[in-house]
Amino acid sequence: MTQRSISILGATGSIGSSTLDLIRRNRDKWRVVALTAHSRVDELASLAREFDAELAVISDEKRLPDLRDALSGSNVEIACGAAALCDAAARPADMVVAAIVGCAGLAPTMAAIEQGTTIALANKEALVSAGDILMSSVAENGATLLPTDSEHNAIFQCLAGNSSREVRSITLTASGGPFRSWSSEQLNAATREQALKHPNWDMGAKITVDSATMMNKGLEFIEAHHLFPVGLDRLRIIVHPQSVVHSMVEYRDGSTLAQLGPSDMRVPIASCLAWPQRMDTPCDRLDLAQIGSLTFEAPDEVRFPATRLAREAVEAGGAAPAILNAANEVAVEAFLADRIRFTEIAALVAQALSAAMPPPPTTLAEVLAIDRDARRRASDILERV
Ligand code: NDP
Ligand code: MG
């Protein structure tokens, strides 16, 4: 059997761990090239040993001596820093899993695209900040982008190679998060612990807060616009609290195809790992009789303004989506550090977007400069709060 080689950027995170869980069950099929993490040295070192990785990269340079100690006596090559992340992403591999959280994953994702390989993309913030540039690079380098985000993976499966001309609309489903039925007054007092308790999914902290504000769906709306360019007016969002239907495609003849599955990220990850075939997973089977009913409701953009902010940002285009993403990253971090209230997250993003817009970026360096400036401005606004 021919082995395929794989690198995982963000190996210690929620998506990274789910990916490695599937690889662990199919050890003979995969050879691990590079694994990366930001600061969790012990977890990275233990994964690098277990999977016999060629290379382990820690992006926080201060942690290099710890990584060296943790991997002493092994054959694993080690490196640190932002440039080493890009080198790891550029190292030849049949598949690169882009699972770093935030805009920090943008340059490494671009490096993976430039090697013209297959990328399983979880890092939605990269597409939000630099969608046009990344998608042009995918085309120029003959890379293959497989969406790992459950909704986009569902859409990818439902599109099944059909041209966008056949599509009448694409609907992203949203769980509505832990605060779906909360009043504005309750939302104002929502705590970090409450926001971190997602009803259906077990994920990293940043995306869990994004799900609570519904910014996650806003980011996914922008992500869908780049992955499936059917026109913004054909993209919809619907709240579906059971998270069973992961998204749907409506065709011009009136047929709607949906993908259903358990709320387990190993399902969409497996669909990327095995694409264009299928593989076994240990995930629970969908028991619709036990679930009983599937419900749907319109999103409420008064209590959850984040989806509106994201739609306006992608309609405005240029630098706006990168600013939206950067301000949101700063705001979520501040909320997680108990510095701002839950409802101030969207307010901070709105304020960042109301400042004068820089010219539209045309290169990755320009996007990264916009991201840095927007973070600085958002931090300044926070200082004044
Ligand atoms: P986690 O926070 O669980 O993991 C993030 C990973 O990125 C970790 O390996 C972390 O390293 C690394 N990392 C964090 N900051 C940096 C940085 N500045 N530079 C380099 N590496 C960094 O996140 P998730 O796995 O939940 O999410 C990853 C991406 O996938 C996000 O973009 C998210 O939106 C997307 N996604 C996640 C889903 C999920 O179910 N979790 C579902 C759909 C999409 P360390 O451990 O050392 O901090
Ligand atoms: Mg999703």
TrEMBL record:
Pathway: Isoprenoid biosynthesis; isopentenyl diphosphate biosynthesis via DXP pathway; isopentenyl diphosphate from 1-deoxy-D-xylulose 5-phosphate: step 1/6. NADPH binds at T12, G13, S14, I15, N123, E125, G204. InterPro entries: DXP_reductoisomerase, DXP_reductoisomerase_C, DXP_reductoisomerase_N, DXPR_C, DXPR_C_sf, NAD(P)-bd_dom_sf. Gene3D superfamilies: 1.10.1740.10, NAD(P)-binding Rossmann-like Domain (3.40.50.720). Keywords: Isomerase, Isoprene biosynthesis, Magnesium, Manganese, Metal-binding, NADP, Oxidoreductase. It comes from the Bacteria. Residues 145-228 form the 1-deoxy-D-xylulose 5-phosphate reductoisomerase C-terminal domain. The keyword Metal-binding applies. Coiled coil: none annotated. 1-deoxy-D-xylulose 5-phosphate binds at K124, S150, E151, S175, H198, S211, N216, K217, E220. Its cofactor is Mg(2+); Mn(2+). It catalyses: 2-C-methyl-D-erythritol 4-phosphate + NADP(+) = 1-deoxy-D-xylulose 5-phosphate + NADPH + H(+). Its EC number is 1.1.1.267. Residues 6-131 form the 1-deoxy-D-xylulose 5-phosphate reductoisomerase N-terminal domain. One of its GO terms (molecular function) is 1-deoxy-D-xylulose-5-phosphate reductoisomerase activity. Mn(2+) binds at D149, E151, E220. The keyword NADP applies. Residues 260-376 form the DXP reductoisomerase C-terminal domain. One of its GO terms (biological process) is isopentenyl diphosphate biosynthetic process, methylerythritol 4-phosphate pathway involved in terpenoid biosynthetic process. NCBIfam families: Dxr, PRK12464.1. Catalyzes the NADPH-dependent rearrangement and reduction of 1-deoxy-D-xylulose-5-phosphate (DXP) to 2-C-methyl-D-erythritol 4-phosphate (MEP). Belongs to the DXR family. This is 1-deoxy-D-xylulose 5-phosphate reductoisomerase. It comes from Altericroceibacterium endophyticum.
